[in-house]
Design brief:
The structure holds 2 protein chains of 2 kinds. By secondary structure, chain A is mainly α. In chain A, 57% of the residues lie in helices and 0% in strands. Chain A has a single domain, classed as Orthogonal Bundle (Non-ribosomal Peptide Synthetase Peptidyl Carrier Protein, Chain A). Chain A contains 4 helices and no strands. The relative contact order of chain A is 0.22. In chain B, the strands form 5 sheets. In chain B, strands 8, 11, 14, 16, 17, 18 and 19 form a 7-stranded mixed sheet that branches. In chain B, helix 2 packs parallel to helix 3. Classes of the chains: A mainly alpha, B alpha+beta.
């Protein structure tokens, strides 16, 4: 998948959890959860949705690599 | 009209999800009511046939007003319908449309299409094709508001249901009323204890390592389960103080404080949390949070928590001191899990710890029992595999 496709996927799934978030205003290298006010359950739901869409295994130990929007995109680009 | 919280005086019926003649079973969702806390699904508590609806959609009625007559299985139908004793304050009774509506020819639904009776009736009136309407009700059921949105015309003003979801100013008012009452009436005492949750964190990481994301646990589920088990053993923490007396509850229904994006807070119950397996507690939390996000929860979930657990999660603070939600008598708070230098025997190590707090009602319990209750929660968290 291309970075743009992954970004669109994250935008789509994030919209189901936090519809008011505008991905365009997010600093791609800043803390994603702090910027979007996602709690542990929101984040788990985001991971679950992406896992189900892409069938990518996302072990808990890799969560630190998903701390930023850019990190998230890079991680999924490598694995999908 | 059920009481969905200590401070609720009235509610507006948004719509009926069952129609006269329908068979209803205990636990079925029969209607949607708009309150200060948003739209709440009303469950029925007996089996039978919905004989007649006494309150029209759009009407606001006081708590205690009969909403409908349910005939028990095998009971004879009432020969002469009694005059409904409804105290309908606001809108004048709309024309006697209910029976006519129920019989009105309704466009045959497409296969698999789910729509509420009110939505079907409106769709028939306005010539709306239900198969082109996106449902916002439970399980994607099409509700009246969805049809209205498509029809592009509101119902007559006095019958127009309010928009679905949360009214933030109303919610703020509801929180203000409940919390003011709590601080006015309940002599709170506060306790705090910091405990080692290394074993619980390690166990969760090990379990989750073998699981796909949809089956993973959060430490918050362990906090809820441990609190529920402890509450079962400390009845003075679990129940309601109402009309000058405390009633302990045999069941443990844990209210889980859930913040709402954009502001506000609700604490709907996980029923019998002490008896649920940990995975089921986690599933119930996921389900509740998803429904709170969508602005839908059931009447019983709002009305009957017996104790509340509040956990601000891993991005929160180290300790939170709760305000008891009346008529409950205790709220347990969990701070975020942090790594701290910790004495282990005579050495110092780095451990994951969390601060557990208790705010409890001094009319019902004392600090000594409160301390034992907190200690029990901490103890239960040392053997996570047994939760």
């Amino acid at each position: 998948m291309t970075a743009a496709e992954i970004r669109a996927l994250i935008k789509d799934e994030l919209g189901g959890i936090a519809p008011e978030i505008d991905l365009e205003t997010i600093d791609p290298n800043g803390d994603l959860r702090a910027q979007t006010d996602l709690d542990s359950m929101d984040f788990l739901n985001l991971i679950t949705a992406i896992h189900q869409r892409l069938r990518v295994d996302i072990p808990e130990g890799d969560y630190p690599r998903l701390a930023t929007l850019q990190g998230f995109i890079d991680y999924l680009a490598q694995r999908s | 009209m059920p009481s969905l919280g200590a401070d609720m005086e009235a509610g507006s019926l948004v719509e009926w999800l069952k129609r006269p003649g329908d068979e209803v079973k205990r636990g079925d969702i029969v209607a949607v009511v708009e309150t200060q806390k948003g739209a709440i699904e009303i469950e029925i508590f007996e089996d039978g046939i919905l004989e007649r609806c006494l309150v029209e959609p759009g009407a606001e009625v006081p708590v205690g007003t009969p909403l409908a007559i349910v005939r028990g299985i095998g009971e004879a139908a009432e020969p002469v319908p009694p005059v409904p004793t409804v105290v309908a304050p606001s809108p004048p009774q709309p024309p006697p449309a209910a029976p006519a509506q129920a019989r009105a020819p309704v466009a045959a639904p497409a296969a698999g299409l789910q729509a509420s009776p009110a939505a079907r009736t409106l769709a028939a009136e306005r010539g709306v094709d239900l198969s082109k309407v996106k449902g916002s009700g439970p399980g994607g059921v099409i509700v009246r508001a969805d049809v209205e949105a498509v029809a592009g015309v509101g119902a007559p003003a006095e019958a127009a249901p309010k928009p679905r979801g949360f009214d933030f100013s109303q919610m703020r008012a509801a929180i203000a009323a409940a919390m003011s009452r709590s601080k006015r009436e309940i002599p709170h005492y506060y306790l705090s204890d910091t405990i080692d949750v290394g074993a619980a964190m390690d166990w969760v990481a090990k379990v989750n390592g073998e699981r796909a994301p949809e089956r993973r646990l959060l430490i918050g589920a362990l906090f809820v389960k441990a609190s529920a088990l402890a509450a079962k053993q400390f009845p003075e923490m679990n129940g309601a103080f109402d009309k000058g007396a405390f009633r302990a509850s045999a069941a443990v229904h844990v209210g889980v404080a859930i913040s709402i994006r954009g502001g506000g807070l609700v604490a709907p119950a996980i029923h019998d949390a002490d008896k649920l397996a940990l995975d089921d507690v986690m599933a119930a939390m996921r389900d509740l949070i998803a429904r709170v996000r969508a602005g839908r929860f059931k009447s019983s979930e709002i009305a009957d928590p017996t104790i509340t657990v509040s956990s601000l999660g891993e991005r929160g603070v180290e300790a939170l001191y709760g305000v008891i939600y009346p008529p409950q008598v205790a709220i347990v708070g969990f701070g975020k899990v942090v790594k701290r230098p910790w004495a282990i025997g005579d050495a110092i190590g780095v451990r994951s710890v969390t601060t557990i707090t208790l705010a409890a009602d001094h009319r019902v319990s004392d600090g000594h029992r409160g301390a034992l209750f907190l200690a029990r929660i901490g103890e239960l968290l040392q053997t996570p595999e047994a939760l």
